[in-house]
Amino acid sequence: MMQRLMTNRSAQHYCTAVFLACWLVGAAVAQRQIDPTAEPGRVAETITSYRTDPGTAVLIFHVFAQRNTSLLDRQAVVTLVNASDQSTIWTTTEDRAKAFFTNVRLGRYGLDVSAVGYLTAHKDLQVMDSNRPLDMEIVLQRDPAALNLDVAEAIISPKARKEAKHAISLLKSQQFAKAEKHLDEAYKLAPTSAELNFLLGYLYYQKKDLPKAATYLTTAATLNPRNGQALALLGRTQLERQDYAAARSVLEQALMVDPEPWLPHSLLADAHLHQKSYEKALEESELAIRKGQAAASSTQLIRGESLAGLGRDQEAIQALNTFLQSTPRSPIAPQVRSLIVQIQEHTLIASANTPFIPAVHISGVDPLAALPAEVLSITPWQPPGIDETKVPTAVGVVCPSARVIEESGKRVQELVHDVERFAAVEDLFHQTLDSYGIPVRSETRKYNYVASITEPQPGVLNVDEYRAEKLTLQGYPDQIARSSESHARLQAR
User: Are 71 and 119 in contact (CB under 8 A)?
Assistant: First the structure.
């Protein structure tokens, strides 16, 4: 009896062991993940079960970048719009760039898939089968206008940076021959650096090699279209080359980057003046004078010539006299005095009712000669301080502050209503610069977070943000912590 009992227990142990082995093998097979990069287009073979109501469908989407050989490396938002009633549902991709919907009614739908840095992909779907999932692959194409956060700006090597620092010191001392040697060495190591191309452009501008200056400055502006200093110097170079159309185009671009400095306005006024667009020249010159005050006194010459071109002789004489009073030792002062005499003679002829009134010739006085010499800024990347920025105002116009506050409040309420709670991925591009404005280090970060915006009492908004990464201050680039875009948008409002 005892022997039979032991035999039965041995059989039970054996069966249990066999069952556990089979279960472990099955679990391992079930958990095996297919690599889509090794076999593109076979992602759907992973076996997963989904619960959905009877008569409804399951939709599964796999999102790829550029070509269907690599999964998207960031979160994407997948939106489904019912064509019959325009109802909308949305979700985000999870691990391995996968998203799915359950309980989808049969019918026609519009599908939109979007991600940061990519163009939105749109497809029209026919959901007709509730018996098996609809499995689709979506390929997103990069947005050419977006910042490519995967490839940081080329950082010049320590050796190239050392050469550039020596060159900057020599440029400020006007030792152009020695500076050129250091810049040539740095340029060999980093020819795609916007900063080095700008420095070479500045060097050749100072050496009056204008074709070379234009070449390097154009490259610098192409590599970094937000460099207002490079654009302004390129515009000045084109003016000296007498290519006024090119100068006007570049200077307009510089003012789109930063409309506050007075010099680009003055240079643009000069370009309009040479193209005989006197109204535009007058407008830009007055803007330059208003923004630059005493520093822009040389622009009174352009203003005076513009007024003369418009036939406003007395105002022109007054502006030219203002120029002479502020810059009495200007090398072009004799030419300006001759121009004043010419305008006065023109006025006398006009007042004598003479049938033929000769035009005033203003082309003999070049406003560029009155401008101060171009000075190399040590920190062209640094934004202006709050005390340096002058907010443009209109004389005699009262700001309707009550209406502005009321309308701003409405926009904030709309924003809160639209995005009461959302999940997103934030792409951060962080760059460390040295004292010369030369990039030392760059890095990119991705943050997954959920934000919730509530209004506990009228006029008070609370923004609660939960990041997937629990970071201390030391975990942020250069120990600079920042909030998400949701905080910035509310502050901007």
Answer: no
**CA separation for the pair 267, 245 (Å, rounded):** 12
Lowest mean pLDDT among 158-162, 274-278, 301-305: 158-162
Strand spans (E) along 76-184: 77-82, 88-92, 98-104, 107-114, 121-127, 134-140
CATH classification at residue 253: 1.25.40.10
Q: What is the pLDDT of residues 386-424, one digit of tens each?
A: 555 555 555 567 778 888 888 887 877 777 666 666 677
Report the DSSP beta bridge partners of residue 444: 429
Let me know whether 163 and 119 are in one domain.
Answer: no
3-state secondary structure of 206: helix
Q: What stretches of 190-277 show up as alpha helix (H) in DSSP? A: 194-206, 210-223, 228-240, 244-257, 262-274
Q: 123 in helix, strand or coil?
A: strand
Residue 70, domain extent: 51-140
Partners of 136 in the beta sheet? Answer: 61
Assess if residue 19 is contained within a domain: no
| Residue 372 scores a pLDDT above 80 | no
Q: What is the mean pLDDT of residues 33-47?
A: 41
* Tokens of residue 58, six digits: 């399951």
Helix (H) or strand (E) holding 350: helix 333-351
Report the b/e string of 339-371 with b at 16+ CB within 10 A: bbebbeebbeeeeeeeeeeeebebeebebbebb
Q: Please, are residues 69 and 39 in contact by the beta-carbon 8 Å criterion?
A: no
Give the model's pLDDT for residue 66. 74
Write the CA distances from 492 to 147, 408, 464, 465, 488, integer angstroms: 22, 10, 17, 18, 6
Per-residue pLDDT tens over the stretch 209-219: 999 999 999 99
